[in-house]
């Protein structure tokens, strides 16, 4: 098994239905095609293959209150879920346990998706349409952005344990944007020890801190922002400006000053940094701008944050090198692209030999239909759980492979040579083993000598004590005999 990065794209043609397509990120080769789905931006989420269960993709339909669920092991719809109302955006937490959906009326639905499909909570979160949703990486918080220019942060534990009679109250509210919110991205880390990036039609990208509930920096761009991405190391932000030119602006959060590196911004509400407004060469990578040449509809980063993926209205996914801004390749999908998701190629992907491993295959993840009404009683609720048989190899172990092979494949994923991966040669291992054996033998010899010295000291002490006791006894016997002679 090898680590191959792939890209999942959803399309929305002007006529007919769209598709979900999976392509190899390095070569652009089509890997899979899922038909009969049409999803708008931010309405597709992916649950990767993990914990011994197959991966799935969910897609909220643009023209009806239906959610399609696709398994990577089948090219047909695995499950159709009829929803209470049409969703404008969706999000799934990293563990694949919870699914959230926002509506045009400002409501948010929260389902315990994989376990039971139960509707845990539904509440009026915003005054206008919910445009974007995002879970924190630990799943403890849900962030929602809306057309009312507000951003709310919700406690997931409170939402799951909330009283049906009480409306949930957000933990935090960010209201510094003046026009509708278009995108939010939560940084790496446990909540609240992480940061938030938000984009808006007001031409600004803002960086927030959860722990202090403060605005750190505002980046002002020449045009309204439609999409934003945050790299895994939190050094770069890429923002798409609306327009036929498809301009993508790079925001650097670190800069070099003399002999040290310092953070950019962080001064608070009054800290405004203007980008893209200087008289610079637009094609120069140092200007922090990429001109795609056509309208960009979605933006994403590869798993290693080394490649930037830009989906366009013309049906192409353009792949750029993050460092040089050079276009490496273009993947043709054929229709307007609405969602792009970078992921590892599923080991249970249909039509590939990797689906069958050793004695069995990876089971399809059990999914229950999403309920339309809120659950009131949890006792007696059936939950689908797949248990591994005792004493047999589980499906999870079938997709694991040795550490040395994992390191080599990870090196290829990072575009590095396998020689750069640290591997200890067999000769060095044998020499180290011999050295340790010699050290053990030396320590055993020292321990034997110390034990011999201890035994000799103990024997000498015993002999000395016995001799003293013997002399004492002889002296006592002598005194007794002398006393007996005097008495007679």
Describe this structure in words.
The strands form 9 sheets. This protein has a 5-stranded mixed beta sheet with strand order 16-17-18-19-25, with no helix packed on it. It has a 4-stranded antiparallel beta sheet with strand order 3-2-1-31, with no helix packed on it. A 4-stranded antiparallel beta sheet has the order 4-5-6-7, with no helix packed on it. The chain is built from 4 helices and 33 strands. The longest helix has 62 residues, at 426-487. The radius of gyration is 34 Å and the shape is elongated. A hairpin with a 2-residue loop joins β32 (356-357) and β33 (360-361). Residues 279-286, 353-359, 387-398 and 416-424 have low confidence and may be disordered. The protein folds into 2 domains: 5-356, YVTN repeat-like/Quinoprotein amine dehydrogenase (Methylamine Dehydrogenase, Chain H), CATH 2.130.10.10; 424-488. With 488 residues, the protein is of the alpha+beta class. Helices cover 17% and strands 36% of the residues.
């Amino acid at each position: 098994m090898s680590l191959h990065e792939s890209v999942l794209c959803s399309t929305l043609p002007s006529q007919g239905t769209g598709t979900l397509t999976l392509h190899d990120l390095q070569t652009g080769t089509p890997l899979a095609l899922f038909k009969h789905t049409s999803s708008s931006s931010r309405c597709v989420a992916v649950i990767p293959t993990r914990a011994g269960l197959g991966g799935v993709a969910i897609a909220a339909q643009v023209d009806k209150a239906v959610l399609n669920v696709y398994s990577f092991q089948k090219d047909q719809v695995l499950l159709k879920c009829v929803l209470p109302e049409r969703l404008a955006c969706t999000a799934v937490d990293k563990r694949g346990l919870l699914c959230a959906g926002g509506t045009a009326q400002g409501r948010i639905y929260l389902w315990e998706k994989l376990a039971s499909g139960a509707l845990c909570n539904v509440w009026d979160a915003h005054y206008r349409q919910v445009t974007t949703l995002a879970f924190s990486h630990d799943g403890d918080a849900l962030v929602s952005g809306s057309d009312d220019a507000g951003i709310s942060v919700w406690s997931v534990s409170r939402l799951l344990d909330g009283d049906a009679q009480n409306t949930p109250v957000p933990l935090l509210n960010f209201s510094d944007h003046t026009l509708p919110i278009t995108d939010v991205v939560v940084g790496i880390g446990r909540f609240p020890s992480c940061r938030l990036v938000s984009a808006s039609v007001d031409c600004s990208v803002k960086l927030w801190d959860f722990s202090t509930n403060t605005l750190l920096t505002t980046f002002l761009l020449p045009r309204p922002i439609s999409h934003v991405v945050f790299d895994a190391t939190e050094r770069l932000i890429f923002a798409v400006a609306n327009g036929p030119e498809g301009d993508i602006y790079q925001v650097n959060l670190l800069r070099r000053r003399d002999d040290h590196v310092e953070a950019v911004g962080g001064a608070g509400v009054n800290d405004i940094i203007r980008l893209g407004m200087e008289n610079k060469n637009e094609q120069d990578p140092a200007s922090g701008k990429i001109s795609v040449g056509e309208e960009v509809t979605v933006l994403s980063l590869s798993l290693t944050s080394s490649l930037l993926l830009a989906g366009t209205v013309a049906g192409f996914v353009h792949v750029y090198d993050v460092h040089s801004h050079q276009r490496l390749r273009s993947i043709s999908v054929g229709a307007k692209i609405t969602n792009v998701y970078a992921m590892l190629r599923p080991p249970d992907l249909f039509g590939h030999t990797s689906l069958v491993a050793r004695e069995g295959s990876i089971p399809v993840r059990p999914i229950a239909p999403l309920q339309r009404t809120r659950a009131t009683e949890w006792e007696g609720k059936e939950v689908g759980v797949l248990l591994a048989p005792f004493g047999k190899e589980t499906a999870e172990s079938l997709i694991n492979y040795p550490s040395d092979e994992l390191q080599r494949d990870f090196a290829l994923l990072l575009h590095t040579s396998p020689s750069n991966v640290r591997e200890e040669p067999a000769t060095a291992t044998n020499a180290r083993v011999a050295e340790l054996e010699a050290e053990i033998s030396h320590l055993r010899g020292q321990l034997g000598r110390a034990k011999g010295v201890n035994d000799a000291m103990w024997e000498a002490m015993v002999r000395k004590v016995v001799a003293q006791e013997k002399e004492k006894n002889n002296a006592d016997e002598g005194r007794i005999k002398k006393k007996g002679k005097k008495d007679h």
